[in-house]
Structures are given as structure tokens and as C-alpha cells.
Write a structure and sequence with these properties.
Layout (H helix, E strand, L loop, with lengths): L2 E9 L2 E10 L4 E6 L15 H18 L3 E7 L15 H4 L12 H11 L3 E6 L18 H4 L4 E4 L2 E4 L4 H17 L4 E4 L16 H7 L6 H23 L4 E4 L23 H5 L3 H6 L5 E2 L14 H9 L6 E2 L1 E3 L17 H11 L5 E4 L2 H6 L4 H8 L21 E2 L3 E3 L4 E7 L11 E8 L12 E4 L9 E6 L5 E10 L12 E5 L5
Helix pairs in contact: 1-3, 5-7
Length: 515
């Protein structure tokens, strides 16, 4: 049984009540937080560390209100970083000038991760591997930017410089970048988006013919060689992540069309002008098939019924090709009320996409690009998400989950505090888990003297902050109903979101209020 709640959609400034919707117990509900050009965070012109921290806490509070349970944060926008490292300069999007540290000095990445985990949200570190600059203004680059320290790694194409995907030393460098993040930080995932080889520039050829002559002798054409270069990076990064911390996920968010059917019978029934395979040289299906990535999050940034690339068609296509990896769907929040297609002026477009996603058993959640249009509540999209995500949801377990589940927590007898009209719950980890404590707990509350359906999200009272280190945990059930009997149960959850068996049940009767 799943929780049913009403859908509320904003139409002409009036909230309308429509049909009820399922609330799945497990679902990824993510938002991309873009830092390049200060799209979402931090606000441009705020170099102060205190300002960054206030902004981040405010963002998380708003995401929490919407029911978001994962943030995908861009920590390496363009050859720079939003954390201290010897491998790249400080990002100009953090302090206004590349290479300048925040003042007072702090580690923004550590802070953002800790605050997200306090809000029971996963933190996916989003990196752009090949983009070295956002323009041709190299005078503003810091002395330790790779353009200056390893100029031979760079190729100019269009209006930007890129790390050259052909070079083995570039792949090693970026693998080192990933290894440092996974080793030093408590991230839940490493995330790449759709930028591999750059999108094609009209009448300009990507300048790698000499590299093909040098490195591509075993390939009959340059296209297969380019795909092999990207394959090598993905495989190296995957191996590195899982060797260091097997529970850290590796996710890719590719362009929404792998190949068109007219080019490949395996492709989707679409007519997209660009594709992952043919234009960006990203063979995502291969990475799924070989298990190099843990999840795929295709950017299905077209509306339902869009003839060249129909959202519904592509959702079904990707879902059917999961190869037992997790499939999440990327939604174009940035197009809401900001695109000539009539569908993007319809408040029901994003809700319909969520419904399609939930009806497909092989797709396990959603992500929205990007934060800003959600928080602006364009056409009531924030209100819609708040209703679709009204009940808390656990993140889906990874496809190769191997960690041992935690034992049953030891729930003490609940205490009703009459003056505050609240119930205090206190529990300890299982005795076998005192050294390696649970990542978080799920608190269930049932009516009556026995437990009910643990998959019904009506019965989930609370999900504690992630990465618990406390010997004892306390939670207050605020404002319970009067004259009812509750049964409380707590479960422990590990880093892979595998839920252990329920602990001892505790029943409490709430009396009538005093006259």
C-alpha cells in the first residue's frame, strides 16, 4: 500500500485539487545545483564564507520543504574547484576571482556535504571532466589552472578550451581528481553530466587528427577511437571509485537520446539533431551493460508528445535498457514558462512526467535542472513537487548492494510529555552495531497495538539525518492525536540504503486533553 495524497496544481493563480497519487517508499528526488556562472549557487558577488553558508542552508531548507532527498552539486565547473585542492585553483564562481580562497577560509565542499546529510539528503558531487574554460579569456585564469601548468593538455574548439580526451595523462589526471574527492569527502556519488566530447560547432572540426594518427592506429575510423577514449575514462573512474569506497555510486546524466532508430535499430524512435553516441562519443549503453556505472540519469528535456524526441517514448526506451542499473529521469525545470513549446506553459507538464515515471517499474526517480526555476515556483512547479513528494522516501538501493544490514535498534519505552503534547522516543543501535553505527534510522508509527504495512508511507513518521555517530538517538513526535493508541518501531539503514529488520515495538496510549 502506498500513500495517496491530492495533487495540487496552480492554474491562473488558483490552486486546483485533482486526483490522488501514489507515494512510493523508495524514490530518488534530486535537484541539480549548478555553480557555473552562479546559476544556482552561490549568488554572484558574495565571496564571504558566512554568506555562502547562509545561502546553502537556505537552499537546503527549501529543498526539504519540496521533499527533495538528493542534491547534485557542481563542484568542478571548468578546470577549477569549490574545495581546496592542489589539482585545481579555487573557482571564480565561489569568490569572484579564480584562485582566491573564501574569507574566512573554510572547506565549502565539506560544509555542503555535512549540511545536506543533516537534512537527510544524499550528496552527489557533480564534475565536468573535459571543460577547461567557459570562454577564451585565459588572462583571468589562475597560475595553477591546467591551461597554464599543462598547456599541451588543452585543445581550443569553438569559444572554449577543453582537456584533450585523447591524452592518457588527461585521463590519469581526472581519475586523480575523482580519487581525491572520494578519499577525502563523505560523498554519496560521483556524477558526470552530458559533456564529454563537446557538442559540435557548425563548420568547425574538432582538432584531434594528429592525436588520432598517434594513438588510434588500431581503429578504422576516428569516431570509434573517440568513443574508446571516453570509455577508458569511464572505466578508470569507475574502478577507482569502487576500489576506494565500494558504496559510493558513479552516475552519468547523458544527453537524452543515445542514437536515433534510423542510425541503429537499437536506437529510440526519435529524430534528434544530436545524440550521445554519434556526436558526444559517449556509448552510455555500453557503460550500463558492462556495469561501469551505477545509475544513468538521461536528460529527457522534451515535453510529452514532442514529435522529434517524445518524453514518454524516451522514458520507456531508457527504462527498458537499464541492464539492472538504476534509471532516474532528468526533467527540464528550466523550460517551465520559458520555452515556445505550448506544453511548457501548462502547469501539468512536469506532474504528468512524474506520473509516467512512477508507472514505469524500471525507472526509480527524478532529478530537476535546475534549482532556480523550482524555487521561483514557475507555474506552481514547486507546489506540485511538494505534493508529489509529500511523504518522505528512502533512496533506492544500488544495483550491487553488498553491505550487511544493521541489526534491530533497541527502542526504549516512549514517554508522553503532556505539557508539550509530544512523545519522546529514544533508542540505541543494536549491540552488534556499536562500533559501526547505522547511517540513519527510519521511525514508523502505526495506529493501534500492532504494526501494519511498512511499505505504506503513511506509516513513516521520520527519517533521521544521515551518517549518525551518536550512541543514543532521540526524536520527538510533535503534536500526536488525542485519545489514540500508537505503536512505534525503528529500523536502521546502512550506506547503501538497505533497511534492517524492525526493532522491538513499543505501544503508547495518548489520553484525552485535560479540561
Amino acid at each position: 500500500m502506498k500513500k495517496l495524497v491530492p495533487i495540487i496544481i496552480l492554474l491562473s493563480g488558483v490552486l486546483h485539487l485533482t486526483a490522488q497519487i501514489d507515494q512510493p517508499k523508495r524514490e530518488l528526488r534530486a535537484v541539480w545545483v549548478a555553480t557555473v556562472a552562479n546559476i544556482d549557487f552561490p549568488r554572484q558577488g558574495t565571496p564571504s564564507a558566512i554568506a555562502h553558508q547562509e545561502q546553502w542552508r537556505t537552499l537546503l531548507a527549501q529543498y526539504k520543504e519540496m521533499g527533495i532527498n538528493a542534491v547534485i552539486v557542481q563542484v568542478r565547473p571548468a578546470g577549477d574547484a569549490l574545495y581546496p585542492t592542489e589539482l585545481a585553483p579555487w573557482s571564480r564562481y565561489l569568490t569572484g576571482r579564480q584562485g582566491i580562497a573564501p574569507e574566512p577560509m573554510y572547506d565549502p565542499l565539506q560544509f555542503m556535504i555535512d549540511e545536506a546529510h543533516k537534512m537527510s539528503m544524499e550528496f552527489h558531487a557533480w564534475l565536468n571532466p573535459y571543460r577547461a574554460t567557459v570562454d577564451l579569456d585565459t588572462a583571468s585564469l589562475a597560475p595553477n589552472h591546467a591551461f597554464r601548468t599543462h598547456r599541451h593538455w588543452m585543445v581550443k574548439y569553438g569559444t572554449r578550451y577543453y582537456f584533450n580526451p585523447a591524452l592518457p595523462e588527461v585521463r590519469r589526471h581526472f581519475t586523480d581528481v575523482v580519487a581525491e574527492i572520494v578519499t577525502k569527502y563523505n560523498v554519496d556519488a560521483i556524477h558526470f553530466d552530458d559533456y564529454f566530447y563537446p557538442y559540435k560547432v557548425k563548420d568547425e572540426v574538432f582538432p584531434d587528427s594528429v592525436d588520432f594518427w598517434r594513438y588510434g592506429s588500431r581503429f578504422s575510423n576516428i569516431e570509434d577511437w573517440r568513443r574508446s577514449n571516453v570509455d577508458s575514462l569511464i572505466q578508470m573512474v569507475s574502478t577507482t571509485i569502487h576500489d576506494i569506497k565500494p558504496y559510493v555510486q558513479f552516475g552519468i546524466s547523458p544527453f537524452g537520446v543515445w542514437r536515433n532508430k534510423d542510425k541503429d535499430p537499437t536506437g529510440s524512435d526519435t529524430r534528434a539533431g544530436a545524440t550521445c553516441y554519434d556526436d558526444l562519443y559517449a556509448d552510455v549503453l555500453k557503460w550500463l551493460r558492462l556495469g561501469w556505472i551505477d545509475y544513468v540519469m538521461p536528460q529527457l528535456y522534451w515535453n510529452i508528445g514532442f514529435a522529434p524526441a517524445d518524453h514518454a517514448t524516451l522514458l520507456g526506451w531508457w527504462g527498458a535498457r537499464s541492464y539492472e542499473r538504476r534509471v532516474y529521469i532528468g526533467h527540464a525545470a528550466y523550460k517551465v514558462q520559458n520555452n515556445p513549446e505550448p506544453a511548457w506553459s501548462d502547469p501539468a507538464e512536469i506532474p504528468r512526467q512524474i506520473q509516467l515515471n512512477r508507472r514505469n517499474a524500471l525507472t526509480k526517480g527524478s532529478a530537476y535542472f535546475s534549482s532556480k526555476p523550482l524555487l521561483e515556483n514557475r507555474l506552481g512547479v514547486k507546489d506540485s513537487l511538494s505534493n508529489y513528494y509529500r511523504a518522505p522516501a528512502l533512496v533506492p538501493t544500488p544495483p550491487d548492494a553488498a553491505l550487511k544490514p544493521f541489526g534491530e535498534p533497541r527502542l526504549r519505552r516512549p514517554r508522553y510529555i503532556r505539557n508539550n503534547h509530544e512523545v519522546r522516543l529514544k533508542w540505541l543501535p543494536n549491540r552488534d552495531d556499536r562500533k559501526n553505527r547505522p547511517t540513519y534510522y527510519v521511525v514508523y508509527r502505526f495506529y493501534g497495538q500492532k504494526t501494519g504495512d511498512f511499505d505504506n508511507t503513511d506509516n513513516i513518521l521520520h527519517i533521521t539525518p544521515f551518517h549518525q555517530n551518536k550512541r543514543r538517538t532521540v526524536f520527538y513526535d510533535a503534536k500526536p492525536e488525542h485519545d489514540v493508541q500508537y505503536t512505534y518501531v525503528v529500523t536502521a539503514v546502512n550506506r547503501e540504503h538497505t533497511e534492517g529488520k524492525p526493532g522491538r515495538i513499543r505501544t503508547l496510549t495518548i489520553g484525552r486533553p485535560r479540561p
